Amino acid sequence: MSTIHSKNAEIFNKDRAKTTWHDQTFWALREKHDNMAKQLPEWEELRSHASDIKRHTITHLADYLEKFSANLESRGVIVHWAADASEFNETVLDILKSHNVSKMVKSKSMLTEECEMNPYLEKHGIDVVETDLGERILQLLHQKPSHIVVPASHLKREEVGRMFEKEGISKEIGNYDPTYLTRCARYSLRKEFMDAGAGMTGCNFGVADTGDVVVCTNEGNADMSTSMPKLHIVAMGIEKLVPDYDSLAVFHRLLCRCGTGQPTTSFTSHFRQARPGAEMHLVIVDNGRSDMIADKEHWQTLKCIRCGACMNTCPVYRRSGGYSYTYFIPGPIGVNLGMFHDPQKHCENLSACSLCLSCDNVCPAEVAPGSQIYLWRQSLEALGKANKMKKIMSLGMSALFNNPPLYNAALKFAPLANMVPDSFTNLGHLNPWGVGHSNPEFAKKSFRSLWREGLK
Amino acid sequence: MKVGLFIPCYVDALYPEAGVATYKLLKHFGVDVSYPEKQTCCGQPMGNAGFERMAKPLARKFDDMFMDFDYVVAPSASCAAYVKVFYPHILEGEHECVSSKKIMDIVEFLHDVLKISSLPGSFNHVVSVHNSCHGVRELGLSSPSELNVPQFNKIIDLLKLIDGITIKEPERKDECCGFGGMFSVEETAVSIRMGEDKIERHMATGAEYVTGPDSSCLMHMAGIAKRENKNIKFVHVSQILAAGL
Hints:
The complex is a heterodimer of chains A (456) and B (245). Chain A contains 23 helices and 10 strands. Chain A has 456 residues and is of the alpha/beta class. The model of chain A has no long low-confidence stretch (mean pLDDT 94). Chain B folds into 2 domains: 2-114, Rossmann fold (3-Layer(aba) Sandwich); 126-241, 3-Layer(aba) Sandwich (Rossmann fold), CATH 3.40.50. Chain B is built from 13 helices and 8 strands. In chain B, strands 2-1-3-4 form a 4-stranded parallel β-sheet, sandwiched between helices. In chain B, strands 6-5-7-8 form a 4-stranded parallel β-sheet. The relative contact order of chain B is 0.16. Chain A: It holds the Pfam family LUD_dom. Chain A: Residues 295-316 form the 4Fe-4S ferredoxin-type domain. Chain A: Keywords: 4Fe-4S, Electron transport, Iron, Iron-sulfur, Metal-binding, Repeat, Transport.
């Protein structure tokens, strides 16, 4: 019955201490969320207001996109539209080539991960340098993010320190003090900022009314990426729009409180136009998002603001790690996004959910990723991806439960199963329940028998 | 007031004592209880596994069987939640679901409908309350820890009516125990780890018993605890409430 996720999770769980550490690290973020949420009396209204704004924006997206892009164009920003990942990558490459850029510094953007932009640009001779500390560490280790907000949180400082020594970034051998390592990274990055011909940022929010590209970071690296080079390229998914400053304020209050438990990010930058002598490009990307709007059951996924709260609260994510999922975005929302991206490839992530629904409650935009996973599971049969053993078990239960006399007979004979010793049923392939459990004992008399014998 | 008793399949076969306790509680408070004998399962195991179509005939029969009662009461939060939350969706377009509006967990029924204020009997033990996910987040038996809402816990409100009991809650009071139906056999490693963590936190309260509104979570934890020789007992909340009846 195992899925790719469950197999990866099993490997992850073999290191018990690391699983504990991973669980506690992300639970700490969940607790920070709780503390923040409880400080705002209007918290639940904020969430529902955010959900309403997103529903409204998504259902009027064409109008808002037009307004947003017209606002930016009126100030000289060059706006590009990309239908999919390859169009996006090609557009970025064209911009860089036409400016003779060979090195680009880049602040964090999950959209560029989604489009696999870095390897594409590198293949075409562009040196792409990540500037978010976590992303930079991963880039040097040739790893992918294991979380969307804190992408390298699965690493311990010793692992980072050893890699920095190898790369010549840290000179004091054996010094794994986080402040020291951060300083080393800062010095190393400073040189990259100076040399780069272009800077790329993502876009957390696009304000349609004013044409603001809003970027939230904790390290100020987006500002460094845009204030040194003369070329700024923004990568933005079409769903990032909000109508106006009032709605931006709602999301601003939610994003960070949900993701990292801070009242707000350390840096919030609004970009409206290029600075004097510089050029600003905006690439607006669809890459399957319009299809999401049209999906009656799952359109809500598009409300997601990528705060990562669902990952932090997910007991499965916390105990299986980001790399156990097949899609690059892990956790509850990643399971859903993977189903949009390529259901055949990513449907095995659907097992990574006990349907506890805690994610439905922390989500600032009321996406309800857990409830959505239940719905996605219903499409597995049509995809030809239903697990055979689960189907046989379900068919068996279905036959039993739809036939009360058969069910009665089964109840009567069930206690016989108590005579089978645990050692026999602990063979996983015969009885998956037996892998970690002792078997429950069937009652000598079922409730039904007791009722018939005169309980009433 | 006519109440239909719903005893989910696994309670029927494995934990009839929770069903008996529920029945005794209802009788004690003078409720007119019946048990329709053709009931079996609510269909949740199939639905959660991705085979909702197999749950549909069960939902239809369930609704027909229980439609004339004023309330339907079950000693299993998760099954009650399945009827309440999912039946209207499953039967949409072919049958207006009536039972979804009438179903309640026994805790919810005693607390919200009968509003009981006393219970005979005593239970001189330390118990740790297991706030099961569906009880918390689908039925609202307690306030979910993630939400900024006034804090309440209907299970604890009722347990407080019993003499001699010491009530505790574990750290991470409503984190999932890792059962999740077929999740527990599909994602064994994570499921067992979640169960172990949960048992550890319950035991850290000094509890002798873990109690809750959902025998399925208790079954999962009891299975792990027994396998690992942990010294802790599991009992459905209705059995504690009915201790003096």
